[in-house]
Q: What sequence folds into this?
């Protein structure tokens, strides 16, 4: 798993719900090419308090980032080229790219927390 802002790994805890003014949950766009992986990660992030917009379609992710304020983009290495287009659409967008090696769902959630803390 790599970060485009940092390689810091956070310990397991809930996502920071009051990160933004108004205390709204963080908005995460999740784009992955495997539906099963997408569903698992989406469930874990929702359980930890995030507003997750999950898609298999990178063009849908791009459209979402154009329309909404997104806190974190979470994507697979295979779709990482989309990250540049998405970052150009929204200045300061934190991006977490999943490596091809297996990682636990807790490690993925920790990576998202670290990205939110850096934002």
A:
């Amino acid at each position: 798993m790599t970060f485009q802002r940092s390689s810091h790994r956070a310990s397991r805890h809930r996502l920071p719900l009051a990160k933004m003014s108004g205390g709204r949950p963080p908005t995460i766009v999740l784009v992955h090419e495997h539906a099963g992986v997408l569903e698992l990660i989406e469930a874990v992030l929702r359980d930890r308090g995030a507003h997750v917009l999950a898609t298999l379609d990178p063009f849908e992710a791009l459209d979402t980032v154009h329309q909404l304020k997104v806190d974190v983009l979470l994507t697979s290495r295979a779709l990482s080229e989309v990250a540049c287009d998405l970052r150009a659409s929204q200045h300061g967008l934190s991006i977490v790219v999943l490596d091809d090696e297996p990682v636990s769902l807790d490690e993925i959630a920790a990576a998202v927390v670290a990205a939110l803390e850096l934002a």
Confidence is low (pLDDT under 50) at residues 2-12, 17-22. The domain at 2-10+19-118 is CATH 3.40.50.2300 (Rossmann fold). The two ends are 18 Å apart (CA to CA).
